[in-house]
UniProtKB/TrEMBL annotation:
Any matching Pfam family: LON_substr_bdg
Organism listed in the record: Albidovulum sediminicola
Domain spans labelled Lon N-terminal: 11-203
Superkingdom of the source species: Bacteria
Name of the protein in question: LON peptidase substrate-binding domain-containing protein
Length: 212
């Protein structure tokens, strides 16, 4: 794992609504816009190969701003398609606080970031000592049935706590603001409790009410 001092203070950022990356988790992405193809080419030339995922958020005047917190991932896999697009995988390294978006001549966006509030992300996987896996999986089964989702239940039962909770936080069809809440959760236990609340809310019909 890298040390805090090894991380660059300026990184390319990829604002993508609803996309969530978490430390030590993996996020597959399909890159096809020219500006992000340029970002990918430039990222491959760097030692760290980091891309910062961050949620855009609407402003009261109808514009768009960036969330205060994002997560950077290291480019760990990529495949080029015949028509020049890329299928890539980012593996989460650490969250960051946005300090300042930078100008410049690149077609993609870049930002100065602060890693210090999330130094813990660079350590080993977190544990969730209060995790009742049986009750969690029972709730998850009801949620998946309601959402029409399917999964490999044997793999879920065998997954480590952090891998299970983070993978579900990434994959579940939640609203962008819910994904941001999961990202900003200070501990794995808090993230799991937030995910449980969101699934319970959806089962009560909260998701439908929000869309109306």
């Amino acid at each position: 794992m890298p040390a805090l001092a090894d991380l660059p203070t300026t990184i390319p950022i990829f604002p993508l609504p609803g996309a969530l990356l978490l430390p030590r988790a993996r996020l597959p992405l399909h890159i096809f816009e020219p500006r992000y193809l340029a970002m990918l080419d430039d990222t491959l030339k760097t030692r760290e190969r980091l891309i910062g995922m961050i949620q855009p958020r609407p402003t009261p005047d109808g514009g768009e701003a960036l969330s205060a917190i994002g997560c950077a991932g290291r480019l760990t896999a990529f495949q080029e398609t015949e028509d020049g697009r890329y299928l890539i995988t980012l593996t989460g390294v650490a969250r960051f606080r946005l300090v300042n978006e930078l100008g410049g001549f690149t077609p993609y966006r870049r930002a100065e970031v602060d890693w210090a509030p999330f130094e813990r992300d660079l350590g080993p996987a977190e544990e969730d000592r209060g995790f009742d896996r049986e009750a969690f999986l029972a709730l998850l089964s009801r949620y998946f049935a309601a959402e029409g989702l399917s999964t490999d239940w044997s793999s879920l039962k065998e997954a480590e706590d952090e891998m299970l909770i983070n993978a579900l936080s990434i994959l579940c069809p939640l609203e962008p603001e819910d994904k941001q809440a999961l990202l900003e959760a200070p501990t794995l236990q808090t993230r799991r409790e937030t995910l449980v609340t969101l699934m319970e809310y959806a089962l009560l019909g909260g998701g439908e009410e929000r869309m109306q």
